Amino acid sequence: MDKLEVAGQSRQSQQHLYAPGHSGCPGCGPSNALIQVCDTLGKDIIVVNATGCMEITSSQYPQTAWRVPYIHSLFQNAPAVASGVAAALKAQGNNHTKVVVIAGDGSTYDIGFGSLSGMLERGDNVLYVCYDNQLYANTGVQKSGATPYGAATTTTVVGSVHKGKETERKPISEIVAAHGVQYVASASIAYYADLQMKLKKAKAVNGPSFVVIDAPCCLGAGFDGGITMKVSKMSVQSRLWFLYEIENGQYKLNFNPANPKPVKEVLELQKRFKHLDSAQTEHIQRQANLNYEELVRKCSIGAPVQGQQPAKPAEQPKA
Ligand SMILES: Cc1ncc(C[n+]2csc(CCOP(=O)(O)OP(=O)(O)O)c2C)c(N)n1
């Protein structure tokens, strides 16, 4: 336990495995995700981190926020590095240490996707965690394949012709599940118990598993860092983001807001959407409704995803 002296008082603080003192923005959603991920997964992990904000702000030599073994890799190849680490652990007879990729959406959806796809197809024993802040934060807020329709970024500008991003987000969970992955989950930093449950399940898989976490970027999306949790929570409550699992091809919706909020309420909190006209807002609302209906349909059918492979039993860690 850390002992902190605060205004003459002493208090104990929990020692997080992702330490305070990193240089993420106050209210940084991804930094919060890392605290929750590391504390849930525990010390017996090796993190392979792709280039991005969470690498830059956590590990500037000679300092580090990581209290677990950590390798920084290139933007495009963290899964390949993780596969190598997993193979080395296997060769050593180590069947308890979990290799965990931590990467942003730019790395996951776009530039590292080929490497991720290969890792999934080979069935390597790696837990892949994507903190999804819906943009390339580190290089100055460019759009990624996870950027939602209508959002302004430095590469989806707003002017007389263009009004922000003109295409939808890639359905990354479905794309990953289509590789025959045993466990895929979508979570949010604002729902800790749900996130913990998913990380534990993903860790227990003997093979590839995937968890994508909604982790809003206050700087890139344009809101005060004091409301990061509110933004993520309202995204779930307005069906712009879903808490669900795809386990052995079976879909399960973990949280279904009884009275969903209009998307307008969460869009209005973010400067990246301030230019939206009513047609664009209506488009986003319609798409949220359609996405929900599609997800509910998949949950009720429970149809295996195409190409699904039979589940492997989880390996028991050595005592
Ligand atoms: C092959 C390659 N292309 C581009 C870059 C430049 N680059 C470094 S980090 C980054 C954005 C990272 O975005 P994301 O994965 O979403 O993480 P975030 O910064 O949002 O945390 C880019 C474009 C690079 N390092 N390597």
Automatic annotation (TrEMBL):
Pfam families membership: TPP_enzyme_C
Xref: SUPFAM superfamilies: Thiamin diphosphate-binding fold (THDP-binding)
Cytoplasm in keyword set: no
Boundaries of every Thiamine pyrophosphate enzyme TPP-binding domain copy: 51-213
CDD domains from the UniProt entry: TPP_PFOR_porB_like
GO terms for biological process, alphabetical: organic acid metabolic process; sulfur compound biosynthetic process
Xref: InterPro entries: PorB-like, THDP-binding, TPP_enzyme_TPP-bd
Keyword Cytoplasm: no
Alphabetized UniProt keyword annotations: Oxidoreductase, Pyruvate
Molecular function terms from GO: oxidoreductase activity; thiamine pyrophosphate binding
Domain of life, source organism: Archaea
The protein's name in its UniProt record: Pyruvate synthase subunit beta
